[in-house]
C-alpha cells in the first residue's frame, strides 16, 4: 500500500482530542449518532450531485451497514454515499471544525431540497471519545478517483494512503479499548439505533437486517395521514400509556423550518408540569428528550416530536442556544395549539367537552402565563355546572337562553338515554343568571366535601360552577382580575340571602327564658363548644324538606380563606384550619329544634352538674359541629380521634336512653 502523505492535523489548539473526550460531549454514546448522521449526509449529497447531472448510471439503493468484529475489537459503519478523495479528506477531516456540509449546500442548493444533517464539523471527531484508533476507508463518486485510507490514533498525527476499495462510499472503522467494548454488543447497538437513528430516512442494517423505521410521520402532509397513523406513532413513542386526547401537526417552512406532531395526553395526578416530555429532533436525528426552552411553559406536559434545523444547538447538540428564533418558534407552537383547540371547539363540541378535564389544565395554565394565548382561547374555557342545559324533551316547556354559539352544552353521552353533567362558559353563566344574582358566581372546589353546600344552592335555583382542578385556585384569581365587576363566592364561604327563610315566626320569644329560639340555640352551642373565637350564627335555611337541609354548616369567609391558603403556600406549610370561622346552625332542621326542646328552661352552663338530658344535648351539639367541620376537612389526626370517641359516647347515651337506663 503506497503511503501518500504523513503530516499533522491542522488544529488551532495544541491538542483538541482531550477537549473532545472530556468537555465537548457530555455522553459518549452520541458518537454513534454523529457517525450515522455523517453517513446519511453522504447519501444525501450523492443524490444531490446526481440530480445536478454530474453522475451517470445507477446509484443503487442507499443503505448504511453496521458490522462488528469482536476479535479485532472493531466497530464499522459503512455507507454507499458520495465518498471522498484524498484532497477532500485533507480539507474536511484534517482541518478540524471545518464543516463541509455548509459549503456543499451552498454549491448544490438549487439541485434539491434534501436536508444535510451535519453543521458542526466536529461530529466525526466524537468517535475519539470511544476509540483508540479511527480509520476512514473511502472511494469518491468522481470518475477515476483513487480510494484512500486515513488512520489516526487520537494524537494530532495521521496517515493517509491508497486503498484497495472498489465500491463507492465510506467506511469508518473504530478500534475500541476494553472499557468501551459495550459498543460491540448487538443489543447495545440496537438501543442506540432506536434512540438516535430510528427515523433517519436511510435503511440501517445490523446483522443483515434493517433495524430502523425510517419514515418520519411528522414530515408527511397531514392530508395523507389517518388518525390511526398518529395513534400508532404515539403508542410507539410512549408505550403502556393511555391514548392521547388529540394532536397538533406542525408544519411550516417560513420564517423558519419546523415539523412536528404534539399530543395532548391524559394527565395523571402526579404530572410534573415543569418537566418537558417532547422529543427534539434535527432533520430526523434525535437530539434530546428535553426542549423546555422551545416549548411554551404551559405546554410542557404535551408529548410528541419537534423537528427543526433552525433551532440553534451548541456544538455537541446537547443544549439549546437561546435566541430570537427560539422565541418565535415557541410563539408559533402556542398559536398552532390555540388554533387546534378553537377548531375542535367550533367543529366538534362534544369531543371538546369529553377532553376538557385534561385540556382544561393546558388552557388555563396558558391563560395564566401567555397573554397572546389567553386572547386566543379565553372564549374556549368551559366549566361543569349544576344547571341542566340538556335540550328540552318534546312537548316539555322550557325557558331557553341562547348565547352567541348557543347554550346547550350537553355532556358527551355513550348512550343517548344517559344523562350527564352540563358545561357552560362564564359569559353564558353570567347572562343566564343575571336576574337571579347579577355579576355573582357561585363555585365549588370539592364536589364531595362541599356536596351539602352545593345541594343547598341547587334547591333554591342557584347555579354552581365546579372549579375543582389543581390549577383552579390560581385561575379564580385570574378571572377576578379579568372580570373586576364580578364577585366569586365559594359555596361554603357565605350564605346568600336567597337561601335563608326570614319568616319571623321562627323567632317567637320563649316566655320561660324570654329569649328567641335562635338566641337559645346560639347560647346552647356556645356553652357546649366553649370556643371563644368561634362565631355562631343561627338562621333558618330554606328547603322543601327541612330534614334534607344540613343541621349546621361551617363557613369560611372568602377573603380569610384565601389569605390563609396564601400564607401557607408562602411558608411552605400545610394549610391549618383557622380557629376563627363561622358555625351557622340551621334552626329549621328537626334535629336542632329537638335539641332546643331538650334543654328548654335548662340552658347548659360550663362546669355545672348536668342532668343526663343536658349532658346528651351537649354531646349532640359537639357532634353536630364535628359533622359540619368534617365537611370542611377541618380535622387533623387528633381531631378525628376525638370525633370518633365523641360519636361513640353519643351512640352509647342514646342506646341507654332508649332502654330507659
Brief rundown of the structure:
The chain is of the alpha+beta class and 661 residues long. It folds into four domains: 15-210, Heat Shock Protein 90 (2-Layer Sandwich), CATH 3.30.565; 217-343, Ribosomal Protein S5, domain 2; 381-388 and 421-492, Rossmann fold (3-Layer(aba) Sandwich); 502-601 and 611-659, Four Helix Bundle (Hemerythrin (Met), subunit A) (Up-down Bundle), CATH 1.20.120.790. Helix 2 crosses helix 5, helix 7 packs parallel to helix 9 (371-377) and helix 16 (612-631) packs antiparallel against helix 17.
Task: Write the topology of this structure.
Layout: E1 3-8, H1 17-24, H2 30-51, E2 64-69, E3 74-79, H3 86-92, H4 100-108, E4 133-139, E5 148-152, E6 157-162, E7 169-175, H5 186-197, E8 204-206, E9 209-210, H6 227-237, E10 246-252, E11 258-264, E12 277-282, E13 285-288, E14 303-307, H7 324-347, H8 349-369, H9 371-377, E15 382-385, E16 422-425, H10 426-432, E17 440-444, H11 451-459, E18 464-466, H12 472-482, E19 487-490, E20 509-510, E21 515-516, H13 517-529, E22 534-539, E23 552-555, H14 558-570, E24 581-586, H15 590-598, H16 612-631, H17 637-658
Parallel strand pairs: 2-8, 12-14, 17-18, 17-19, 22-24
Antiparallel strand pairs: 1-6, 2-3, 3-7, 4-5, 4-7, 5-6, 8-9, 10-11, 11-14, 12-13, 15-16, 15-18, 20-21, 23-24
InterPro entries: HATPase_C_sf, HATPase_dom, HSP90_C, Hsp90_fam, Hsp90_N, Ribosomal_Su5_D2-typ_SF
Domain Histidine kinase/HSP90-like ATPase: 27-180
Pfam families: HATPase_c_3, HSP90
Amino acid at each position: 500500500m503506497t503511503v501518500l502523505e504523513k503530516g499533522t492535523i491542522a488544529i488551532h489548539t495544541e491538542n483538541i482530542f482531550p477537549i473532545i473526550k472530556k468537555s465537548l460531549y457530555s455522553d459518549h454514546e452520541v458518537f454513534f449518532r454523529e457517525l450515522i448522521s455523517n453517513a446519511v449526509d453522504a447519501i444525501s449529497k450523492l443524490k444531490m450531485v446526481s440530480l445536478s447531472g454530474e453522475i451517470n448510471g445507477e446509484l443503487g439503493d442507499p443503505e448504511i451497514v453496521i458490522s462488528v468484529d469482536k476479535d479485532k475489537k472493531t466497530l464499522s459503519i459503512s455507507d454507499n454515499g458520495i465518498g471522498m478523495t484524498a484532497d477532500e479528506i485533507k480539507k474536511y477531516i484534517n482541518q478540524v471544525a471545518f464543516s463541509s456540509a455548509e459549503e456543499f449546500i451552498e454549491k448544490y442548493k438549487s439541485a434539491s431540497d434534501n436536508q444535510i444533517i451535519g453543521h458542526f464539523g466536529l461530529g466525526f471527531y466524537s468517535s475519539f471519545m470511544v476509540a483508540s484508533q479511527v480509520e476512514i476507508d473511502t472511494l469518491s463518486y468522481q470518475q477515476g478517483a483513487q480510494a484512500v485510507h486515513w488512520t489516526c490514533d487520537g494524537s494530532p498525527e495521521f496517515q493517509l494512503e491508497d486503498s484497495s476499495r472498489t465500491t463507492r462510499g465510506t467506511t469508518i472503522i473504530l478500534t475500541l479499548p476494553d472499557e468501551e467494548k459495550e459498543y460491540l454488543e448487538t443489543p447495545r447497538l440496537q438501543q442506540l439505533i432506536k434512540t438516535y437513528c430510528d427515523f433517519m430516512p436511510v435503511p440501517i442494517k445490523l446483522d443483515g437486517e434493517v433495524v430502523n423505521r425510517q419514515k418520519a410521520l411528522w414530515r408527511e402532509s397531514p392530508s395523507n395521514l389517518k388518525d390511526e397513523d398518529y395513534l400508532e406513532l404515539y403508542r410507539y413513542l410512549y408505550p403502556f400509556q393511555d391514548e392521547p386526547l388529540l394532536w397538533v401537526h406542525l408544519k411550516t417552512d417560513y420564517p423558519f423550518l419546523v415539523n412536528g406532531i404534539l399530543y395532548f395526553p391524559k394527565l395523571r395526578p402526579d404530572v410534573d408540569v415543569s418537566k418537558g416530555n417532547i422529543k427534539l429532533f434535527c432533520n430526523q436525528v434525535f437530539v434530546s428528550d428535553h426542549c423546555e426552552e422551545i416549548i411554551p411553559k404551559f405546554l410542557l406536559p404535551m408529548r410528541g416530536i419537534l423537528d427543526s434545523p433552525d433551532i440553534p444547538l451548541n456544538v455537541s447538540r446537547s443544549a439549546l442556544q437561546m435566541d430570537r428564533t427560539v422565541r418565535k418558534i415557541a410563539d408559533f407552537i402556542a398559536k398552532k395549539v390555540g388554533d387546534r383547540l378553537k377548531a375542535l371547539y367550533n367543529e366538534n363540541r362534544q369531543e371538546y367537552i369529553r377532553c376538557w378535564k385534561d385540556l382544561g389544565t393546558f388552557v388555563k395554565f396558558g391563560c395564566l402565563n401567555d397573554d397572546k394565548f389567553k386572547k386566543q382561547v379565553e372564549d374556549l374555557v368551559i366549566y361543569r355546572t349544576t344547571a341542566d342545559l340538556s335540550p328540552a324533551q318534546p312537548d316539555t316547556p322550557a325557558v331557553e337562553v341562547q348565547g352567541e354559539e348557543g347554550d346547550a352544552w350537553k355532556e358527551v353521552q355513550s348512550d343517548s338515554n344517559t344523562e350527564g353533567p352540563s358545561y357552560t362558559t362564564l359569559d353564558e353563566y353570567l347572562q343566564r343568571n343575571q336576574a337571579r344574582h347579577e355579576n355573582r358566581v357561585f363555585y365549588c372546589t370539592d364536589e364531595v366535601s362541599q356536596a351539602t353546600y352545593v345541594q343547598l344552592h341547587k334547591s333554591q335555583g342557584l347555579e354552581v360552577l365546579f372549579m375543582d382542578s389543581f390549577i383552579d385556585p390560581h385561575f379564580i384569581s385570574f378571572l377576578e382580575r379579568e372580570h373586576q365587576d364580578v364577585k366569586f363566592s365559594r359555596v361554603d364561604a357565605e350564605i346568600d340571602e336567597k337561601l335563608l327563610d326570614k319568616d319571623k315566626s321562627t323567632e317567637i320569644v320563649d316566655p320561660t327564658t324570654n329569649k328567641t329560639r335562635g338566641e337559645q340555640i346560639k347560647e346552647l352551642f356556645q356553652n357546649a363548644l366553649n370556643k371563644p373565637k368561634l362565631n355562631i350564627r343561627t338562621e333558618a335555611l330554606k328547603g322543601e324538606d327541612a330534614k334534607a337541609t344540613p343541621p349546621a354548616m361551617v363557613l369560611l369567609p372568602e377573603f380569610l380563606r384565601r389569605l390563609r391558603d396564601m400564607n401557607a403556600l408562602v411558608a411552605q406549610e400545610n394549610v391549618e384550619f383557622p380557629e376563627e370561622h363561622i358555625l351557622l346552625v340551621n334552626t329549621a332542621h328537626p334535629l336542632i329544634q329537638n335539641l332546643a326542646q331538650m334543654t328548654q328552661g335548662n340552658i347548659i352552663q360550663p362546669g355545672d352538674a348536668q342532668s343526663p338530658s343536658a349532658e346528651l344535648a351537649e354531646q349532640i351539639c359537639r357532634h353536630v359541629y364535628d359533622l359540619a367541620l368534617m365537611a370542611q376537612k377541618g380535622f387533623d389526626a387528633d381531631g378525628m380521634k376525638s370525633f370518633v370517641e365523641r360519636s361513640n359516647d353519643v351512640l352509647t347515651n342514646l342506646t341507654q336512653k332508649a332502654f330507659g337506663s
